[in-house]
Amino acid sequence: MRRITLSAIYILLSACCIISQNHNIVKLSLQECLNTAINKNAAIRTAILDQQKSQYKIEQTKSALFPQVNVNGNFSDNLQLPVTVIPGDFLGKPGSNYAIKMGSTYSASASLTIKQELYNQTKFTAIKLAKKDEALQYMQVQKSKENLTYDLSKLYFLSLITDKQKSLDEENIARTQRLKEITQTLVTNGLKKTVDYDRVCVNLENLRTDLSNTEATLDQQQNMIKYMLQLPLDTKLILTDSIEMPFFLSTPAVIDNLNDQTDIKILEMQKERNLLNQKKINRGYLPTLSFTGQYEYQGLRQSFGNYFKSSDENRWYPSSYVGVSLSIPIFDGMDKRSQARQAKAEYQQSVIKFEDTKQKYSVDYKNAVNNFLNQQENVKRQKGNVLLAEKVYQEATLQYKQGEIALSALLQDDMDMNNAQVSYLKALYDLKVATLDMITINGEIKNLTNK
User: Fold this and answer.
1) Average pLDDT, the chain
2) Are residues 215 and 352 in the same domain?
3) Residue 285: phi, psi to the nearest 5?
4) Each residue of 316-367: pLDDT tens digit?
5) Into how many domains does the chain fold?
6) Which of these, 407, 423, 387, 406, lies nearest to 204 by C-alpha position?
7) 86: in domain
8) Three-state DSSP class for 393?
9) Can you tell me whether residue 188 is helix, strand or coil?
């Protein structure tokens, strides 16, 4: 009975372990990886917060055009009243002066003031500048997404290539293990020398070392993917796409106009922003007009105890005014002129950088298209080469078993087949990178996350 109970407990624990392991398995396509990373990536979240800050900056800039209303209060205890000297003529005693204390011991006031900008071109331009900054931050978010898409796509397919390399290493080990057993039999029968057996053993150990290195590399690559997706490191990650899967159903189009390229859009916006900044500074020379108004109550008392007693002697005196205020800049020590010259230089720099970048991207795009077409041909060529190398190795294996060729020739054919397989995998990866380079420059890379 006790043995049955222990067996049942063991089965339950095993089942729990299996369920727990299944919970840690995550299967992801490239599309799912990209969507997950974009939602969780720290750089993109930071860029989005910068965009939100720019939106708040627009609200802050607009606030200067709304009425500015303030309530002010003041209380003072005049410990010594100011003295004013008046001529005696006012008192009927010409030729003499009299010192008279003026004011009240206590004074208090409460006022409501309002100010409204009526004409201020500097602040109007500042709003346009803030909106341009917000649009620029939006493009920075898109650029961050494209950078993440590029890096994660490369890493995704590199991991697939490494995983395929791991499978090839395992197949090579299994094949060499069989060759080792065949050679052992031939040595036992006196058809081969012991040194042939030793050569196979050396080759087998080299393959096992290659497998160990490949497994370590694959683990590092998948850990980086987990980091980019914010997944726990103990998660078992399964990439579901094929290494031969194209990014798009059709070949990316070759275009002449690169205005949809994000970097070019950003530089164009920076150029427009610098021009607006220059205009904003120059409009500081224009006059400003504002409406002002105030309503105030003032109380004057000789005794603090009478402040809140209502009587004819303890009155609160109202006062108010409305008006307009005109300010015309005349001379500021050349401050605005210096700022305007700096802004003009920044604008000219942005124009030069914009034109130079457009030319550079035209060259880069032409090179990227040529590289893409070349890598397509390389993949076809290397795929045919793998099939041929496998055929040669199969024939060489048969000849070796029949004693028609030496072991060195078989090992050379095996090496040639391995090199052909590695070259094919490298060609596949190079094609993926060439495609990414091409669609990054022509702006199609954003479509990878918009499917």
Assistant:
1) 87
2) yes
3) -80, -15
4) 889 999 999 999 999 989 999 999 999 999 999 999 999 999 999 999 999 9
5) 2
6) 407
7) yes
8) helix
9) helix
What mean pLDDT do residues 97-106 have? 80
Same domain, 193 and 283: yes
d(CA 285, CA 337): 10
Q: Which tens digits make up the pLDDT trace of 148-181?
A: 999 999 999 999 999 999 999 999 999 889 888 8
Q: How far apart are CA 5 and CA 1, in angstroms?
A: 6
Alpha-carbon distance of 51 to 55, in angstroms, equals 6
Same domain as 379, residue 323: no
Token digits of residue 393:
């190795």
Residue range 80-101: average pLDDT? 77
Among residues 288, 321, 294, 298, which one has the least CA distance to residue 68? 294
Residue 75 DSSP code: E
- CA 253-244-218 angle, to 5 degrees, is 125
- 84-98, 221-235, 307-321, range with greatest mean pLDDT: 221-235
pTM of the model: 0.81
For 299, the token pair is 């109380």
Q: Is 162 exposed, middle or buried (0-12, 13-18, 19+ CB in 10 A)?
A: buried
CB 347 within 8 A of CB 278: yes
Q: Is the pLDDT of residue 222 over 60?
A: yes
Give the length of the chain: 451
In whole angstroms, what is the distance from residue 413 CA to residue 408 CA?
A: 9
Report d(CA 168, CA 390) in Å as an integer.
13
Report the DSSP beta bridge partners of residue 26: 237
- Residue 104 CB coordination number (10 Å): 14
Beta strands 106-119 and 68-77, pairing class: antiparallel
Secondary structure (H, E, C), 77-129: ECCCCCEEEEEHHHHCCCCCEEEEECCCCEEEEEEEEEEEEEECHHHHHHHHH
Report for 69-83, 207-221, 257-271: range of highest mean pLDDT: 207-221
For residues 417 and 312, state if they share a domain.
no
- Segment holding 339, helix H or strand E: helix 335-401
Tell me the three-class secondary structure of 218-254, residue by residue. HHHHHHHHHHHHCCCCCCEEEECCCCCCCCCCCCCCC
Q: Which residue range(s) make up the domain with 109?
A: 70-117+291-327
Give the Cα separation of 160 and 141 in Å (integer).
28
| pLDDT tens, residue by residue, 40-72 | 888 899 999 999 999 999 999 999 999 999 999
How far apart CA 397 and CA 173 sit, in angstroms, is 15
Specify whether the CB–CB gap between 421 and 392 falls below 8 A: no
